[in-house]
Amino acid sequence: MIATAFAPGSIGNVGPGFDVLGLAVEGIGDRVTVELTDGPSRVAGVTGRDAGLVPADPSRNCAAIAAIAWLRGHGDERNVVVTLDKGLPLAGGLGGSAASSVAGAYAAFLAAGAPAAPPLELITAALEGETAVAGRHLDNIAASVLGGLALSRSIDPIDAVAIPVSAPWWVAVVTPEVRIETRAARAILPATWPQAMWIQQMANTTALCHAFECGDAELLGRALDDRYAEPLRSPLIPHFLEVKRAAVLNGAFGCSISGSGPTVFAIVPDQATGSRCARAMQNAFGEIRSTSHVGAIAKMGVRREHETLKRPDTRHPGPDTQT
Amino acid sequence: MIATAFAPGSIGNVGPGFDVLGLAVEGIGDRVTVELTDGPSRVAGVTGRDAGLVPADPSRNCAAIAAIAWLRGHGDERNVVVTLDKGLPLAGGLGGSAASSVAGAYAAFLAAGAPAAPPLELITAALEGETAVAGRHLDNIAASVLGGLALSRSIDPIDAVAIPVSAPWWVAVVTPEVRIETRAARAILPATWPQAMWIQQMANTTALCHAFECGDAELLGRALDDRYAEPLRSPLIPHFLEVKRAAVLNGAFGCSISGSGPTVFAIVPDQATGSRCARAMQNAFGEIRSTSHVGAIAKMGVRREHETLKRPDTRHPGPDTQT
């Protein structure tokens, strides 16, 4: 009747894979506790990062929306008391709303004691939460559910594919204290695009997916090249080019904007390189305060809370940011 | 001083992967013999399919152009006497000009006795031949050089990736007697495309590449969905929808137009299914005469002639077409 789930945060788009690719990152994510109730749904409490900005109205809280969607989808008319512990920023580009939604749906499944939670059912429920607060996008949802690299082939009908990642790569993410709303960051993108441009983007995304699958770091470096969103969104992120250069100079295979930003991510060969890149990227942000996290590519997606792995190198949540 | 090479034909685009994916097919292709000469370059003879349409002027013959490009790229000022034996139609959508170009470049390499022919050098030389007769596209060239499924990530600089195909799938190709020029088939395509459309195309192409790589036939069936060229080019191919339906009803995972057409291809689980599909597809073409070929996905690309495998199930070249 009560259960807690953890869903990892994720890098949206992963460079060129706009709305198509998501990459789950170990050691950073949102925890959601769901208690079933015959009374009205409510949000009992929110702790962690950006807690004050999370809606307390359950009809506008993505974790509650997703939890209820999971229950209704299984013929369960009970309501939910939801508690959130956020490790992810609210509009940071790390799939915070997706992780809360996924953890909410999974905690509802656990609390209801259902026999199994097929990924498609979790994604369907979580998508209701994500849609209510950030728009109808599958890339972060799929990564938070499936873990690793997730490919969203189609949203109608939902078709998400877990791409096996053979390489033991890590990820460095740095979130500057700059607020970018997902909807605004989408509005600056062109509605149509020339043939040569989207063909190049398609080629890069296909190559990127293959590079993750076969562990080809050099190909990853060449393919992690976003011609669509990065040129238009990077001006919203002060010092972006210096940050990107700092990552590559310190051993990253590639670096781009996570989701709609402002988080910047780098794919790195190992933890030590990740830590070095994160420091250099934070330094390159200059006067802009930032937080960083270094984590492996998540081997699994959403999980029961006690299965949560120890956070290896996080500076979240809390005031210990690096400037 | 004289050598013969065989380059397999290939399916261009492979459904959604416009200008990005190419798939080499075993047992059908072009043979080119190159003899080095200190005299002027010339085309000594052309046999096989569409032989009468192949330019005899070496400055307009893609095999000769590619052979000379290979020699010049290696500081060799000699010229070439070229003989072609074409198994591929000239403008059929099976990468005929690419296969002739690749075989020309490789035969020049063999004739010159150079120690090695790196794929990048072959592609560079062959691209000169292809560009002269069909436009500057890499998808068929890369497949004819590398074999199997080839991903053209970039043409400037050239970056082509061989995608390992784990499944033992076969291909059925049916070429109706309808002529479509590559340039004309490109001109009918829109110069720009809405965001939602190219994102869907990008998702399908990424999923398709992964489906080949991991042998997921169901995913291949869902991802082999071209929203860009097929809707506009299929009206140029009489009975296309019936042909496509016949392929799928007879066990094909998916079916689309090869390159700019008019060849229609189907991906099938095995040779027997391929033969059944090819017959059904030819029947569906009704009054339109057609030729068909059933071959495995080519394990290797261009090769010295004596390495050429026996053609397992070809009805090319010659008059034994099925109507």
Mean pLDDT of chain A: 93
CATH topology (fold) name of the largest domain in chain A: Ribosomal Protein S5, domain 2
For the sheet with most strands of chain A, the description reads: 7 strands, mixed
Top-tier CATH class of the largest domain in chain A: Alpha Beta
Strand content of chain A: 25-35%
Our count of domains of chain A comes out at 2
Low-confidence residue ranges of chain A: 307-323
Approximate helicity band of chain A: 25-40%
Described by its quaternary structure, the protein is homodimer
In total, how many beta strands of chain A? 12
Count every helix of chain A, treating DSSP H or I runs of 4 or more residues as helices: 10
Helix and strand string of chain A, N-terminal first?
EEEHEHHHEEEHEHHHHEEHEE
**What CATH architecture label of the largest domain in chain A applies?**
2-Layer Sandwich
Shape by Cα distribution of chain A? globular
Biggest interface, CB < 8 A: A-B, 37 and 37 residues
Distance N terminus to C terminus of chain A? Answer: 43 Å
Class by alpha and beta content of chain A: alpha+beta
| Backbone CA Rg of chain A | 18 Å
